[in-house]
Structure formats: C-alpha cells, structure tokens
Amino acid sequence: GLNGRLYWYAVSPLHHFIFEGMLRRIAGKA
Question: What is the pTM of this model?
Fold first, then answer.
C-alpha cells in the first residue's frame, strides 16, 4: 500500500547509512 511505500522511502536511507557504518567498522577492524 501507499503507507508501506512511504515508510520504505523514509527508512531506506537510514538503513543504508547504518549498513555503510557496519561495513566501515568491519573494514576498520580487519
């Protein structure tokens, strides 16, 4: 539905930011 789509658009950048941060942490430890 529209609500689900709006929610995804709102949260997607946040997930991307968190995912990138996790990758950087793992890469930094290696």
Answer: 0.45
- 6-25 as b/e: b if 16+ CB within 10 A: eeeeeeeeeeeeeeeeeeee
Name the residue ranges covered by the structural domains of the chain.
1-30
DSSP assignment of the chain = -HHHHHHHHHHHHHHHHHHHHHHHHHHHH-
Q: State which amino acid sits at residue 24.
A: R
Query: Which tens digit of pLDDT belongs to each residue from 17-30?
Result: 999 999 999 999 87
